[in-house]
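hey so u asked for the seq, here:
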Amino acid sequence: MSPRLASFSSPAGGGGAERSEAEGVSPANAGAAPSVSFADSSPAGGGARTFAGKLATMAGQPLHEIGPAGAGFEAAALGFTLALAASWAGPAGVLWAGEDAAFAEEGAPYPAGLAQYGLPLDRLIVARAKKREDALWAAEQALAASGAIVICALGAQGKPLDLKASRRLLLFAERYSSRCLLLMPENGPSAAWTRWRVAPAQSDAAPDELGLPAFRAELTRNRGGPAGAAFTVDWNAHERCFSERAVARALSAADTDGPVDPRRARAV
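ran it, structure tokens below
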């Protein structure tokens, strides 16, 4: 079964105010400080040092931002985002809303590859929008489905995303108990609970074997606790779960010892 494809166009002619008010989120309160209704559920209040502890906390937070750790790492950031969505996907499914620029940079979705990666194709909708505003609008509408996992993928071209736009995503996700993964290059202030910078990691497989997808993910912002921790993780698409490498966890003691030296982390 292939994922459902949709083209979204938001109502033209200044429809932004009507859309937001219809959903109970006005432009005025979208720009204000959001009221937080998601609790930090980790045992250490966001400071859990294992990647599993971070994921447990993130599962109860409405908005997370993921981006590449550097030029050429866009595919790794996308792979990490898709893995998060697959691990959290429930009956409400996954909607992947992206602007054309993002799909041009990262490649178009391929159903067979997505299925092998762990995405549930019977509960996956891909929406490709010509403009950034339309991609954001599609993401907002999808977040109104309680329990949905929404990927909002934005390209590197154009103006940086302003704080109000990310706050709107946060408010929709909070109101409907859904979750949003904002995939974009780092570009300033964000309402996201966490911000991750992702790079590919060396395979842990034998030289003549194809290993699991591996990532080095650094937590550069964390509203629920300390930031700076880095993790090297493998994605098991069959089990739809991450596994953390023990050596990487020892290197990611940034919760107490400061940021990790990228030169050491790349050696893992």
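The chain has a mean pLDDT of 80. The first strand starts at residue 4 and ends at 7.
lmk if thats what u needed
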